[in-house]
């Protein structure tokens, strides 16, 4: 019997700790691992009754919450493939996601009836409600307890379709595999717990907060990792500082996994959160700005650890508490490359570069089968089993990875390479800059110039032109001349993806004649 089916992770917890709580909702409900397995079985039976079988895709357009756990494992039990669509998408984005992935069934809830009505006008896929019938959509009768054993699947079988954040273009539908996902979990377990064995958490281990939504790869990996090691999971609808504070008081989390934007909100919150029992905060999803990290650690005296990876490549590098205690941590790095990860730094011609040389981060991985909606992009992503991350960086002699930027975001200014993240980190330290995004703009003389889109602090009364001059002068003191923004444009806000990443593609370019 193969263990690659992700549903076998739940099988293991149902076998070794059936009566322990495995899942909590923020509303006070809870389920044991045995109850989770039985309700996932109810979903599996209901999907089979709809004609869903192994390899069939089922799209989920559901508000984030604990019930999604049953739907994920229910699909995996029968070898079906969840297509997790963001519940924040509008009708057009939902229709686009369905068209890209071609599911045989779409499951929805009644939280956005207007959106559903707009989608149903042209729907070409059967739709079922997971609750009461809504907008004429019949309900899926899943809420019963059924013991359904997980079917065998091949390691390379499609496990899930996730949508990337779309920070540099439209979101792409990524196909990930059962075997690749399990391998990524094992690598993370090895560096976190020292073993790849499942169910190693103590029976009284604190639950893990699944801070990211379950339509996101970070949310799904957090859930799977909690169950893999044997910890309960707390699933909420969405992040909020007050919500987080309440859950921290209720559950006494000893660790947290957050996005940089969440840490930013925590740092800027007026209230103090109960971090007394938290030993560390793991941050992933994008680089965290140094001023934000420093402000958090100074306020709460809790170390921030980083984890570098992606939906397409899985867990690649990071720092653990053991690294910190051993003095291995290096400032500005993405972390030590995890044991078992095959990583190369390559030039544009595909040649592997030596230690210390900058190039694209390329990882051998069986996690992804590519993009289901873009064959050309898939060929660029996965070549001969190596995933091309699009991130630029280098590895030092100690096996520590440093990132310098995104390959496609790099700005070529007068022949020099300029990385937007470096400029952004410096400008965020200015007391009158609330947030910033740096873009490249065509320039006849220099090819491209860096342009900074700045969100001002709310209580700042300086005229735009004066503040722009101050910001440029501030940058010149801290950066090489070719990295200094040539233009400053003030904007009320910077657009973010559903998971909090700032979007370069969606940010408006400054018009000629704006503030300098």
Q: Number of helical runs? A: 14
What's the helical proportion of residues? Answer: 25-40%
CATH superfamily of the domain at 411-490: ANL, C-terminal domain
The CATH architecture name of the domain at 411-490 reads 2-Layer Sandwich
Highest CATH level, the class of the domain at 411-490? Alpha Beta
User: Might you state the CATH topology name of the domain at 411-490?
Assistant: GMP Synthetase, Chain A, domain 3
Uncertain stretches: 506-516
Question: Averaging pLDDT over every residue, what do you get?
Answer: 88
The count of DSSP E runs of length 2 or more, i.e. the number of strands, is: 26
Can you tell me about this structure?
Helix content is 29%, strand content 25%. With 516 residues, the protein is α/β, with parallel strands linked by helices. It has a domain at 411-490: 2-Layer Sandwich (GMP Synthetase, Chain A, domain 3), CATH 3.30.300. The strands form 6 sheets. Strands 11, 12, 13, 14, 15, 16, 17, 19, 20 and 21 form a 10-stranded mixed beta sheet that branches. A 4-stranded mixed beta sheet has the order 2-1-10-9.
Write the layout of secondary structure elements.
Elements: H1 7-16, E1 21-25, E2 30-32, H2 33-49, E3 57-61, H3 67-77, E4 81-84, H4 91-101, E5 105-108, H5 113-120, E6 127-129, E7 158-163, E8 173-177, H6 178-193, E9 208-210, H7 217-229, E10 233-235, H8 241-251, E11 255-258, H9 260-267, E12 280-283, H10 290-300, E13 304-310, E14 314-318, H11 321-325, E15 335-337, E16 342-346, E17 359-364, E18 368-371, H12 375-381, E19 382-383, E20 386-395, E21 400-406, E22 411-413, E23 416-418, H13 420-427, E24 433-443, E25 447-456, H14 464-478, E26 487-490
Helix pairs in contact: 1-2, 2-3, 4-5, 6-7, 9-10
């Amino acid at each position: 019997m193969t263990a690659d089916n992700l549903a076998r992770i739940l099988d293991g917890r149902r076998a070794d700790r059936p009566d322990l709580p495995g899942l909590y909702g923020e509303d006070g409900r809870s389920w044991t691992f045995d109850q989770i397995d039985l309700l996932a079985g109810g979903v599996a039976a209901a999907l089979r009754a709809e004609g869903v079988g192994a390899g069939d895709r089922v799209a989920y357009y559901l508000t984030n919450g604990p019930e999604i756990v049953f739907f994920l494992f229910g699909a995996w039990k029968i070898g079906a493939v969840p297509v997790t669509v963001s519940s924040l998408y509008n009708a057009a984005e939902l229709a686009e996601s369905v068209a890209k992935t071609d599911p045989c069934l779409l499951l929805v809830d009644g939280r956005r009836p207007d959106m559903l009505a707009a989608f149903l006008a042209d729907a070409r896929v059967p739709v079922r409600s997971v609750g009461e019938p809504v907008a004429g959509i019949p309900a899926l009768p899943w809420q019963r307890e059924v013991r359904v054993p997980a079917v065998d699947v091949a390691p390379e079988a499609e496990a899930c379709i996730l949508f990337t954040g779309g920070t540099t273009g439209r979101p792409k539908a990524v196909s990930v595999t059962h075997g690749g996902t399990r391998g990524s979990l094992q690598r993370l377990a090895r560096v976190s717990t020292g073993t790849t064995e499942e169910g190693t958490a103590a029976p009284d281990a604190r639950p893990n907060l699944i801070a990211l939504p379950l339509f996101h790869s970070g949310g799904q990996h957090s859930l799977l990792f909690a169950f893999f090691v044997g910890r309960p999971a707390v699933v909420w609808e969405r992040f909020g500082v007050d919500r987080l504070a309440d859950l921290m008081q209720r559950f006494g989390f000893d660790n947290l996994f957050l996005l940089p934007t969440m840490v930013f909100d925590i740092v800027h919150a007026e209230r103090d959160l109960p971090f007394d029992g938290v030993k560390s905060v793991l941050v992933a999803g994008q680089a965290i700005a140094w001023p934000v990290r420093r402000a958090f650690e100074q306020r709460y005296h809790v170390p921030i650890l980083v984890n570098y990876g992606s939906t397409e490549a899985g867990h690649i590098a990071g720092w653990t508490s053991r690294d910190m205690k051993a003095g291995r941590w290096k400032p500005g790095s993405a972390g030590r490359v995890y044991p078992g990860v095959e990583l190369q730094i390559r030039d544009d011609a595909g040649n592997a570069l030596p230690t210390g040389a900058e190039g694209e981060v390329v990882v051998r991985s069986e996690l992804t089968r590519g993009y289901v909606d873009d064959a050309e992009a898939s060929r660029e992503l996965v070549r001969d089993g190596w995933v091309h991350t699009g991130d630029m960086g280098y590895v030092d002699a100690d096996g520590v990875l440093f990132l310098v930027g995104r390959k496609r975001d790099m700005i070529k200014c007068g022949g020099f390479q300029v990385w937007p993240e470096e400029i952004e980190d410096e400008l965020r330290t200015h007391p009158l800059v609330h947030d910033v995004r740096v873009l490249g703009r065509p320039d006849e003389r220099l090819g491209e110039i860096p342009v900074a889109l700045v969100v001002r602090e709310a209580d700042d009364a300086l005229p735009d032109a004066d503040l722009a001059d101050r910001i440029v002068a501030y940058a010149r003191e801290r950066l090489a001349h070719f990295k200094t923004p040539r233009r400053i444009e003030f904007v009320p806000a910077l657009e973010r993806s559903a998971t909090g990443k700032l979007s370069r593609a969606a940010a408006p370019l400054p018009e000629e004649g704006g503030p300098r």
